[in-house]
Amino acid sequence: MELYLDLFSQPCRSVFMFAKAVGIPFEFKMVDLSAGQQFSEEFGKLSMIRKIPVMKDGNFVLTESIAILKYMAQKYSSSVPDHWYPADLQQRARVNEYLSWQHMNLRAHGSKVFLFRTLYPVMMGSEAPKEKIDAALEDLQQSLNLLEENFLRNKPFIIGDKISLADLVAIVEIMQPVGSGVDAFEGRPKLIAWRDRVKKEFGEKLFDEAHDAIMKASSLPQKLQNNKDLEMIKPKYQRLFR
């Protein structure tokens, strides 16, 4: 199995962490997003979608992180602990409920904060408008409120006493704005305790390995400025801000 990843990407981190945590063997294929490698002719032959992660299992190519996570959990169901993607109908439905909700909520809002604070100045040539950043931060806070009040409630993990794919996908998304300098956990003791439980389940070494790049995101603008193909890839990123 080959996994095409860049750990700056939160969906890539979820796939990387899951495979590592449950012992699924894979070959890490780096696709440097800051260099625009996803737009290369070679990568286009693998995936016309030109986004990562991408999984290649023999001749079978799969895109979209949620689809990849479910595929791995089900392909290796004999060795992957059931709690990650439970066989029980209602427990699995709870995992799917969160995974369906997060796309246009926590993922969208956390990503927007990161993009405005980290990529906007490089791609647009100026700081992001304050009103846009403030609106993105407000949306993020609302999503975090829903994560706590609707999904986590008073449980150790999103679906109950054990960690699942829902918790994994949630934590990597929250760490994205954290990497841009926004402490999404500030003033949220319930969320802090949940984060610490998730980190313990994965082990500090794996958690920190997966998030090393994003926690050094302050170096990303300079890396982009040094990219000789920056002017070529700028229009593709500028579309995100219009």
From TrEMBL:
Question: GO molecular function of the protein, one example?
Answer: glutathione transferase activity
Q: Which domain of life is it from?
A: Eukaryota
Residues forming the GST N-terminal domain are: 1-80
What Pfam families does the database record attribute to this sequence? GST_C, GST_N
What lineage, starting at the top, does this entry show?
Eukaryota, Metazoa, Chordata, Craniata, Vertebrata
Where, per UniProt, does this protein localize?
Cytoplasm
What organism is recorded for this protein?
Lates japonicus (Japanese lates)
**By what name is this protein known?**
glutathione transferase
Write down the top EC class of this protein. transferase
State whether it acts alone or in a complex, and with which partners, per the record.
Homodimer.
List its EC numbers: 2.5.1.18
Q: What InterPro entries does UniProt report for this protein, alphabetically?
A: Glutathione-S-Trfase_C-like, Glutathione-S-Trfase_C_sf, Glutathione_S-Trfase, Glutathione_S-Trfase_N, GST_C, GST_C_Theta, GST_Theta, Thioredoxin-like_sf
